[in-house]
Design brief:
α1 (2-22) packs antiparallel against α2 and α2 (26-46) packs antiparallel against α3 (50-74). The radius of gyration is 21 Å and the shape is globular. The termini are far apart. It is an all-alpha fold. The chain has helices at residues 2-22, 26-46, 50-74, 77-82, 95-111, 113-117, 120-127, 139-147, 151-172.
């Protein structure tokens, strides 16, 4: 039963991600991206990484996705039309090259699939009896590391996201006097 739920969530995430990258409507793609991020959080729960699942929901779904929605809502239609990819632009990528790049990435992933099934670090941690169980509590250690060792990086990312939101607001302003 659990395997069926896992495969259902995995299929939902993969199909939703493929639809996100193929949609031309940005608003619909953002809302479908919400499904992808929640599905990834559910996969973290299956991997017994409950803290990472909660952080996935709080940071990515609650922060980054909302920031992307604000940037979309604050951007003007003229700006969106000016950045649309056209065939004569240097930046635009033909669909065949995108399919080629995705196929190469899939080939690389499949060539390493044997190690992905049971990575060597998992085998080594099992031998040394350093395996997490579903009853272990690592949240205290992660919180301690965030507030001591990684506090600068944590605050830097929050300032960076604030600057991105201010930049999106400035770009979308109707009055261009500044």
């Amino acid at each position: 039963m659990e395997a069926a739920i896992f495969y259902l969530i995995s299929a939902t995430v993969i199909i939703s991600a493929l639809i996100v990258v193929s949609l031309e409507n940005i608003a619909r793609a953002l809302f479908l991206f919400f499904v992808v991020l929640l599905g990834v959080a559910a996969l973290y729960v299956f991997a017994l990484a409950d803290f990472v699942a909660i952080i996935q929901i709080m940071v990515y779904v609650g922060g980054v996705l909302i920031l992307m929605l604000f940037a979309f809502m604050l951007s003007s239609k003229e700006l969106l039309k000016s950045i649309e990819a056209k065939e004569d632009r240097f930046i635009s990528v033909p669909k065949w090259s995108a399919v080629l790049m995705c196929s190469l990435l899939l080939a690389i992933l499949l060539s390493n699939a044997r190690e992905l099934l049971i990575p060597t670090w998992v085998i080594e941690s099992i031998k040394s009896k350093q395996v997490l169980s579903s009853t272990d509590n690592t949240i205290e250690n992660i919180g301690y590391q965030f507030m001591t060792r990684y506090v600068f990086q944590f605050e830097f990312i929050s300032i960076f996201l604030l600057a991105a939101l201010i930049g999106a607001t400035h770009i979308a302003r109707k009055d261009k006097t500044l």
